[in-house]
Design a protein that fits this description.
The protein has 197 residues and is an alpha/beta fold. The strands form two sheets. The protein has a four-stranded mixed sheet. A four-stranded antiparallel sheet has the order 2-3-4-5. β6, α3 and β7 form a beta-alpha-beta unit. α2 packs parallel to α3 and α3 packs parallel to α4.
Length: 197
């Protein structure tokens, strides 16, 4: 999920019905909220395995996104690379105009079934050089059928993001609240310190 957050947002997290792919992060004391909903691009009809989830901080996301989400069906594929690439391309197009800290949250419940020809890490390194993306990539692995090493490596290569293991639904809220809180308290990314003696 591509994520660009305003500093005033504080979040709590809960999941919706088990068959749904939607994760809702609800309101705070300031009445701001972040609603995460999966929807296809306007010009494409995508299955749930090829969907990029975008955090909408403006509240303008249509109710049609929720209706579409209920129609998505699992086809048994985990195309991690396509989701990662799509999210980074989307964020990199807007990184200069956003003027805030951005992050990509990549949540998966399985091992990748489609692998780019150069592999995930080499492809990510090439994409990073090509797009010059500034956002951090944070990865989340849900369940026990995962390539945790790959998810951790993607997070580290993605501007020192983080990897979180989610064993079951009982810890989803805590892990996402921690991730959003970390994002909200980030003042700068990709900082280089040069010192002279």
């Amino acid at each position: 999920m591509a994520c660009s957050v305003q500093p005033s947002i504080h979040s709590t997290s809960s999941t919706t019905k088990p068959s749904s792919s939607e994760i809702t992060i609800s309101r705070s004391l300031t009445e701001d909220f972040v609603h995460i909903s999966i929807q296809p691009s306007q010009d494409e009809k995508l299955s749930s395995c090829n969907t990029c989830c975008v955090v909408d901080t403006s509240g303008s996301m249509s109710d049609a996104a929720e209706i579409q989400n209920d129609k998505n069906e699992n086809s048994g594929n985990t195309n991690l690379w396509d989701d990662l690439r799509t999210g980074l391309e989307h964020l990199s197009k807007q990184q200069d105009s956003i003027k805030s800290i951005s992050a990509l949250f990549l949540l998966t419940h399985g091992c990748p079934t489609k692998i780019p020809s150069d592999g995930h890490l080499v492809s990510l390194e090439k994409l990073k050089k090509n797009l010059n993306f500034l956002c951090a990539i944070n990865t989340f692995g849900f369940g026990y059928i995962l390539d945790s090493k790959l998810l951790e490596d993607i997070a580290m290569l993605g501007n020192s993001g983080s990897y979180a293991f989610i064993p079951d639904g009982s810890s989803v809220g805590t892990i996402f609240v921690n991730a959003i809180s970390t994002l909200l308290t980030t003042a700068a990314t990709n900082v280089q310190i040069i010192y002279c003696f």
